[in-house]
Specification:
The chain has a single domain, classed as Rossmann fold. 35% of the residues lie in helices and 26% in strands. It contains six helices and seven strands, in the order H-E-H-E-H-E-H-E-H-E-E-E-H. It has helices spanning 2-8, 27-32, 43-56, 82-102, 121-124, 160-169, and strands at residues 14-19, 35-40, 62-66, 105-109, 130-137, 140-147, 152-159. Strands 2-1-3-4 form a four-stranded parallel beta sheet, sandwiched between helices. Helix 3 (43-56) packs parallel to helix 4 (82-102). The longest helix is centred in the middle third of the chain and has 21 residues, at 82-102. The protein is globular and about 45 Å long.
Length: 176
């Protein structure tokens, strides 16, 4: 949901790539919000989407990549762990290339892994400069900003009701 709210508030072109469970949002409603939606349910489809974005994205656009790692984790069935690292590195390097070549903003939404780090942190650390953690604290949402080494560089508290109200007024949370 966090990625969806971020994408819907962008001023120019916004692409929302929903991986795994995030692939099943109502694409018609999201397109009415001005989002270009991609629901992705396989690793092959993930790579095809990244290549397609390389053609469609323009300068100043936003790509929200929601569910990073969710299509890579099934690769744990393979006996060698480097398969996961290689697949994750390929995805993140393609997103990084899009960001640099097309001068776009890329937000990778991921879950929390071991030791309070993002999932696949060993893959992300070479490409990501800032991490943002969203923590619900009663009526507030606390946003923690960390640098590439996960040292806290800032924090912000927002009223959760105001954020939800703005999302509802734009029709973002309806039916999700």
């Amino acid at each position: 949901m966090t990625g969806l709210v971020l994408a819907s508030m962008w001023r120019s072109g916004a692409f929302y790539v929903g991986l795994g469970k995030h692939a099943f949002y109502d694409s018609g409603r999201l397109s009415r919000l001005g989002l270009k939606f991609y629901g992705v349910v396989s690793f092959r489809e993930e790579l095809e989407t990244l290549l397609e974005l390389g053609i469609l994205v323009n300068e100043g656009d936003l790509i929200v990549y929601d569910g990073f790692g969710s299509l890579i984790f099934p690769l744990y069935a393979y006996p060698r762990g480097h398969v996961i690292y290689s697949a994750g590195t390929l995805v993140v390097s393609l997103l990084s290339k899009l960001s640099i070549d097309k001068r776009t903003t890329v937000i990778i939404v991921s879950g929390e892994g071991a030791e309070g780090r993002p999932l696949l942190f060993s893959v992300l650390r070479a490409y990501v400069r800032r991490y943002f953690w969203f923590v619900r604290e009663g009526e507030l949402v606390r946003i923690i900003v960390q640098d590439a080494e996960l040292s806290q560089v800032g924090t912000l508290r927002l009223d959760a009701g105001e954020v939800l109200e703005k999302a509802q007024s734009r029709g973002i949370t309806k039916g999700l």
